[in-house]
Every structure is written in structure tokens, then in C-alpha cells.
Specification:
The complex is a heterodimer of chains A (194) and B (175). With 194 residues, chain A is mostly beta strands. Chain A contains one helix and ten strands; from the N terminus they run H-E-E-E-E-E-E-E-E-E-E. In chain A, the strands form three sheets. In chain A, strands 2, 5, 6, 8 and 9 form a five-stranded antiparallel sheet that branches. In chain A, strand 3 and strand 4 form a beta hairpin. Chain B is built from two helices and ten strands, in the order αβββββββαβββ. Chain B has one domain (42-174). The chains are: A mainly beta (194), B alpha+beta (175). At the A-B interface, helix 1, strand 1 and strand 2 of A face strand 3, strand 4 and strand 10 of B. Strand 1 of chain A pairs antiparallel with strand 10 of chain B, so a sheet runs across the interface.
């Protein structure tokens, strides 16, 4: 309320000033306007991202989507090593979560456009080597229909408001160290179609 | 109401001062004069604020508000920004100088840590990339009479909450 009072005073000053110099000019003005911004879970945001399946390859952790390969149930805990993992120099394509019917893969992640403009979606890996210049696995979202990686140069089909696309994840392990849990950051981008 | 009384008081005092040095003086005079003030919606005001996106709404009394939280479309159930993400909104609203003198624009509130307000003289919806002219509070853009700028926002949220604005105080000062 104090702010509103301040505006009224400013407004009064401007009117007086206008009268003095006799033109249609205004000396100063200010407008206080409300801004509502909320940060919400990934599944509810303008760029909505939801795990498709019921396993734990992809899940929501502290309101953000996180991927785990192998899924969390099979990853080693503490000193206990994982009983399974991804082999080196291999390409893996994950198109369903671990608990889901392998006969009809339905995608790993559902990405929906909940903004007001048409967008295209792609992913981009931030770092491809670790701090000691060792190769990290290369990770990318891909379109199950075209089987192509979704990249900046070749993104998804345009998504209108309320439309979604289900994507899989492709992982190229390269020469990444065996016996390590590699943490990779994947940037998922939705851009207005140019 | 107190403001009105104060202004009239000032007028009476000035008249009294003139009387003291003049001839044919009168001790005091008071005259009530009409002052007509047309209050209009934001889009037609001297400092014109006009929505150019779904995220700026002209609500009660045509007063503009910005909303990056509630549903804006019945087809979707979005209610905000992704955590730990950058989200950009282009061409949110337009500021126009509908007065006669050049003014300098400044955002004195709404400058929370996790938002950058940018401007451009043209709409950037059809351009590639983020073809902005600069940030509002770095450049304090100056608008001649009749000129407009489009306002854009970049939210850079690094956690699950963010330091985000609750209001935006837009000031236009005479250059």
C-alpha cells in the first residue's frame, strides 16, 4: 500500500508540473504492476517433462526429471557395486522404462509444450569429457519414429500449445571408464520455431 | 483528499505573497478552479503499457499484470517455470511514450536476482536468436514521443525456488 501512495504523490507532482509549463508533457511517471512467477515441478511447467513408465530409469527427484542407467533398483549402493551396467564402446537405445512391457515400448519421457507458442525440442550435452579429459558417455534424446537424435540442427517436429512428443534416450558409451558412475548433464531445450 | 487540500493551500500562499508587494492589494483571495484529469487504461496512458503476449494481461481497469504462473490456456495445465532451468519469454508487452517529451525508462522493482528484463525497438518474435537491443536497467532506454519498445524476460532459475519478482515498477522520467 505504501508503494501505491507513492505513485499517487508522483502523479500529483506530474500534474502540477504540466500545468506550470503549459504543454502536454509529463515530467515523470511511474506504474507499479503485478508480476506472478512460480517455479513448479517439471511435469507442470511451461516445458512439461514427465516420465512415461513406472520404472526408475527416469523419475522425478526434487521436482526435476533425472535419468539413471541402470535404473536405481540395480545401481550399487555405497561400497556395493552395481550388478549390471552399460558396456564400453556400445550404443544403447532406451525406449521404455525398466518395469514396462518390452513388447510395446511407449517412450521414456513425455515432453509437452504448455507455453503459448509453437516450439521444437532437442537435447544438447553440456560436457563430453570429465575434469581429467576422459571421455564421458554421449547422451541424447531421440525420436522413436525417425530414430534420429534430436539435435539443434535436427529438432523434433513442431509442437503446438498442448501437444507432446514421447522420446527415447540413446547412449554411446565410447571409451568411458569402466567401473565408474558417470554423471552427465543433458540440456533439454524447447525453442520457438523460427 | 489530503493532497487536494495541500495544493489549494499552496495557491493561497502564493497569492498572499504577491499582495504584500503590490498596490491595490487585497489581503487574501481564494479561487476554486476545475482540474480535469482523464484516467485511462494502461494501453492509452501517457506511459502506454500494452500486452503483446499471453503472459501479459490487461485485467481490472485495463491495468496490465504479468503472469508466468497460472493457466493462460484451457488446453494446458502449466503453472510455472521449470526448476533449475532457463526460461525466456519474448515480446511480453510493449511500452510506448504517448506523451510529448522524451523519457528514460527504468525498472526500479522486479529486479530480482533470477530475472533479466531486456528490450528491443522491434518485435523479436520473427527473428532468429535473441535479437535484443539490451537490458532495461543497464541501458535505461530513452523513448521519444511516439516511440515504443518491446519487453522480454529471461528467468535463470538455479534451484527449486528462484529469486523472482513480485511486482515491476516502471518509471519514465523526463530526459
Amino acid at each position: 500500500m505504501k508503494r501505491r501512495n507513492a505513485i499517487k504523490l508522483l502523479g500529483g507532482g506530474a500534474i502540477a508540473s504540466t500545468m506550470t509549463i503549459g504543454s502536454g508533457a509529463f515530467a515523470a511517471t511511474g506504474a507499479d504492476r503485478q508480476v506472478n512467477v512460480e517455479v513448479v515441478n517439471d511435469d507442470n511447467a511451461f516445458l512439461s517433462m514427465k516420465p512415461v513408465g513406472s520404472g526408475s530409469r527416469v523419475s522425478e527427484d526434487q521436482s526435476q526429471v533425472v535419468f539413471n542407467f541402470p535404473d536405481r533398483n540395480r545401481r550399487g549402493i555405497g561400497d556395493k557395486p552395481a550388478d549390471v551396467g552399460l558396456g564400453r564402446n556400445s550404443t544403447y537405445e532406451f525406449l521404455a522404462d525398466s518395469a514396462d512391457d518390452r513388447g510395446s515400448p511407449d517412450g521414456l519421457l513425455d515432453i509437452a509444450n504448455q507455453g503459448s507458442e509453437d516450439v521444437v525440442v532437442y537435447s544438447k550435452q553440456i560436457q563430453t569429457e570429465d575434469s581429467e579429459d576422459n571421455p564421458l558417455p554421449l547422451v541424447s534424446l531421440y525420436d522413436p519414429e525417425t530414430e534420429e537424435d534430436l539435435t539443434e540442427d535436427q529438432p523434433s517436429k513442431p509442437l503446438g500449445t498442448g501437444e507432446d512428443v514421447r522420446v527415447g534416450m540413446r547412449i554411446r558409451t565410447r571409451e568411458a571408464d569402466a567401473g565408474e558412475l558417470h554423471e552427465v548433464t543433458l540440456r533439454i531445450v524447447a525453442e520457438r520455431q523460427q | 483528499m489530503e493532497r487536494r487540500k495541500f495544493v489549494i493551500g499552496m495557491g493561497a500562499l502564493a497569492t498572499g505573497s504577491a499582495a504584500a508587494v503590490g498596490t491595490g492589494a487585497f489581503a487574501a483571495a481564494g479561487a476554486d478552479r476545475d482540474v480535469n484529469v482523464q484516467v485511462v487504461g494502461d494501453s492509452n496512458a501517457f506511459l502506454g503499457l500494452e500486452s503483446t503476449s499471453a503472459y501479459a494481461k490487461e485485467g481490472e481497469n485495463d491495468e496490465l499484470s504479468l503472469d508466468f504462473s497460472d493457466e493462460f490456456d484451457s488446453d494446458v495445465d502449466a503453472s510455472g517455470l521449470n526448476p533449475n532451468a532457463d526460461t525466456r519469454f519474448d515480446d511480453i508487452f510493449k511500452i510506448s511514450n504517448n506523451g510529448e517529451d522524451e523519457v528514460r525508462i527504468e525498472f526500479t522493482e522486479g529486479d530480482a536476482d533470477d530475472v533479466k528484463w531486456a528490450y528491443s525497438s522491434d518485435s523479436i518474435s520473427d527473428e532468429g536468436g535473441w535479437a535484443i537491443d539490451g537490458e532495461v536497467n543497464e541501458d535505461n532506454p530513452e523513448l521519444d514521443s511516439g516511440e515504443s519498445i518491446y519487453i522480454h524476460a529471461l528467468f535463470e532459475v538455479e534451484d527449486n525456488e528462484g529469486d523472482l519478482p513480485e511486482n515491476l515498477f516502471i518509471s519514465a522520467d523526463n530526459v
